[in-house]
Amino acid sequence: MALFAPALMKVLRHEGVVWEDGNDIPVKTGYVNLPRDPGGETNWGITIKTARANGYEGPMADMPLCVATKIYKDEYWDAIHGDDIEHQGIAEEMMDTAVNMGPARVIKYLQEVLNAFNDRGARWPDIEVDGLMGAQTIDYLNRALAFKPYYGAAIVKYLNCLQGTRYIETRAPWVPAWGERL
């Protein structure tokens, strides 16, 4: 089964957290407050809206890592059923995408991938693309992983491509153009 800690470390690196070499001590939290970012203040990759919805009321710049960790576990890891995913890379990619696009979207992406890999229903039936990570989605994922050893890596790439395509299609006005600084 996949582990939360490595998935969290990947997400935190993507969210601007910098770690001291050879240590688990962050030297930069990733706190930002960019005027063009509709998410507003963000620390450890957690927006102020998400922090407040999860009970954190202090200044965002001072939010402790333990608070962010609990939010990541409750809002993203548990929503994608990360503990039930057998492939670490898939769990990490799903959590990373869930943080940026929401758990339902990445679960839909996984369901689309599973339908694409099922050989038109010959390997397993199509699954409803509903954004819910239920027992059937996990079962079909496990069937895919058992069917071909390379499917794990292929699913990670497929999910990453769907995420990238979404970014291109929905480029938010606050996202800088190539080479432009925020």
Describe the structure.
The chain is mainly alpha-helical. The protein folds into two domains: 4-77, Chitosanase, subunit A, domain 1; 86-169, no CATH class. Helices cover 49% and strands 5% of the residues. It has seven helices and four strands, in the order H-E-E-E-E-H-H-H-H-H-H. The strands form two sheets. It has a two-stranded antiparallel ribbon with strand order 1-2. Strands 3-4 form a two-stranded antiparallel ribbon. A hairpin with a 2-residue loop joins strand 3 and strand 4 (46-47). The longest helix has 19 residues, at 151-169. The mean pLDDT is 90.
Parts with pLDDT < 50 across at least 5 consecutive residues: none
Number of helices: 7
Radius of gyration: 17 Å
Question: Into how many domains do the coordinates divide?
Answer: 2
Query: Total strand count, please?
Result: 4
The strand line-up of the biggest sheet is 1-2
Oligomer: single chain
Indicate the mean pLDDT: 90
Structural class: mainly alpha
Task: Provide a concise account of the structure shown.
The chain has 182 residues and is mainly alpha-helical.
Give the helix/strand layout:
Elements: H1 4-14, E1 18-19, E2 26-28, E3 42-43, E4 46-47, H2 48-53, H3 65-77, H4 88-101, H5 103-116, H6 135-147, H7 151-169
Antiparallel strand pairs: 1-2, 3-4
Helix pairs in contact: 1-4, 4-5, 4-7, 5-7
